[in-house]
Specification:
elongated; mainly alpha
Length: 165
């Protein structure tokens, strides 16, 4: 027996409502959740006495994994297969983490430079996140979650007609 669908209105389910939002709204929302998680983890980890630079690294890595899951199911869901294989998901996860290396370099560079100039570590963390966001969107859109004919849930019109959103 299946669970009854949760409806927002007569127009559709919660999932269809979320997918009906412009991609940029979904991207920013997912990014905001991941960013807030990263800042919370940065604060909590540094309380243990670990260096702020190391704490930022661990906070970034944990929030990256959460960001992948949310990106897969919210931001780029229409570009995923209806029946994804384990291999497909692992390939996307590895690609996303590969992309995260470049955004980590951007994030950590901004963070370290701002710490050097005595900017508060939470402000430095937030600015590091902002600096890495554009790279994340472009690489995710064009490589990791690109439209794949015969594979993606959405059509070219649905996903590319309003590019990059």
């Amino acid at each position: 027996m299946t669970e009854p669908e949760v409806r927002l209105s007569d127009r559709g389910t919660v999932a269809s409502y979320v997918q009906g939002m412009p991609r940029i709204v979904r991207f920013v929302s997912v990014g905001a959740v991941a960013s807030l998680l990263q800042l919370l983890l940065l604060y909590l980890i540094q309380l243990t006495g670990i260096s702020k630079l190391v704490a930022n690294f661990f906070a970034f890595e944990i929030s990256t994994q959460v960001n992948f899951v949310l990106s897969y199911f919210i931001t780029w869901y229409d570009r995923t297969p209806k029946e994804p294989t384990v291999r497909y998901v692992i390939e996307r996860l590895l690609a996303f983490n590969g992309m995260a290396v470049s955004t980590l370099i951007i994030n950590m560079s901004v963070f370290a430079i701002l710490l050097f100039f005595h900017v508060h570590y939470m402000v430095a963390g937030a600015l590091g996140i902002i600096a890495a966001t554009t790279t994340n969107f472009v690489v995710s859109s064009r490589l990791i979650f690109r439209l794949r004919k015969g594979v993606s849930r959405g059509t070219a019109r649905d996903t590319l007609g309003r590019w990059p959103f």
